[in-house]
Design a protein that fits this description.
The protein has 326 residues and is an alpha+beta fold. The chain is 53% helix and 7% strand. The strands form two sheets. The protein has a four-stranded antiparallel beta sheet with strand order 4-3-6-5. The mean pLDDT is 92.
Length: 326
């Protein structure tokens, strides 16, 4: 694996590819920015990046995300008995925290559980890459999203300074997401929460902090307590396709959808809705997402992700209620 070696490449370009030289120039600019804007020690950062590795496996992973699958395949990843039963167990083990967060923020327990279940299988799969390697690789060697990941690398270094963490130590996903809830560094800084008051926001080893952080994230993104999330619908004819617009934000109404041949339950006609189509082996399923469905997509900007979280949450709640009623 190649390394981001600053001093050597700046001294001479002999023996290095244009891509490596370009990465090094970008790294030098980044370090200068961190020193100027955030008062980091330039020499210390140069030393830090001597031990940072770019990894081809990270580039390969980000070019084949699960969200590129059709719905019927994507759904199978998460709607498994093991993940449903694991959700019930996680709920039982963290019942007091989940209840407290529901009472404080209005987030249903099953939604918080499902998020952590989808993200990391309740903490079993939090990733095996050093966060700084992931962010540096994508920031300096993946031009398509370089701006985003360099921003997250900036946030990560600030975060490590704030939380007194060694930047080399935190481990996460190939994209640099961290802990049970898979927070990116910017999300950690803005939404991670210390539930127990021990002055630590430990989303890696403390489920209470992870749950509270998820709840805070949804609250800050305007979750509406007690409101419907989504429901499936049927359509007559093909006029409904006019409402299958780009984006995820609710942009139509029940009245307009009814005019396009979609059968809807009785809802406030003023409440914004989003018509969504999900590919099955044969045909498509139609769903209507409401504001809370859109809030779930703020966690991961994918309708597939949001529907998986929603359906998993319903399955977990059903299984949990069945166990509790015995």
């Amino acid at each position: 694996m190649k390394k981001l070696v600053l001093a050597l490449l700046l001294a001479s370009s002999i023996g290095f590819s244009q891509a490596e030289i370009k990465e090094t120039v970008a790294l030098n600019v980044f370090i200068s920015k961190m020193a100027k804007q955030h008062a980091f020690n330039k020499t210390e950062l140069e030393s830090l990046f001597q031990s940072v590795e770019t990894k081809d496996s990270i580039i390969k992973a980000i070019t084949r995300p699960a969200e590129g699958m059709p719905w019927y395949k994507y759904r199978q990843i998460f709607m498994r008995e093991s993940r449903i039963n694991g959700g019930v167990k996680f709920w039982q083990e963290n019942q007091n925290v989940l209840q407290a967060m529901r009472e404080q923020y209005g987030i249903p327990e099953e939604i918080m559980v499902a998020i952590i279940g989808v993200e990391t299988l309740y903490g079993e799969r939090t990733g095996g890459y050093r966060v700084i390697d992931a962010l540096a690789t994508l920031g300096f060697s993946y031009p398509k999203r370089s701006k985003f990941f360099l921003g997250e690398l900036e946030q990560f270094l600030i975060l490590c300074r704030e939380e007194n963490m060694n930047p080399i130590e935190p481990v996460g996903s190939y994209a640099g997401a961290m802990g049970l809830p898979q927070f990116m560094p910017s999300s950690y800084r803005h939404y991670a929460t210390d539930f127990e008051g021990d002055k630590q926001r430990d989303i890696w080893g403390n489920p209470a902090d992870a749950i509270a952080s998820v709840a805070n994230y949804f609250s800050k993104h305007h979750w509406q307590a007690g409101k419907v999330i989504a429901y499936s619908v049927k359509a007559e004819g093909n006029d409904y396709k006019k409402a299958l617009t780009k984006g995820l934000k609710p942009d139509t109404t029940a009245k307009k959808l009814a005019q396009l041949g979609i059968s809807l339950p009785r809802l406030d006609s003023k409440e914004p809705l989003k018509l969504l189509s999900f590919e099955q082996k044969s045909g498509h399923d139609l769903w209507v997402g409401l504001t809370n469905f859109y809030v779930i997509t703020r966690y991961n900007h994918s309708a597939l992700y949001a529907l998986a979280v929603f359906q998993l949450s319903e399955a977990i709640k059903k299984a949990h209620d069945r166990v509790e009623s015995k």
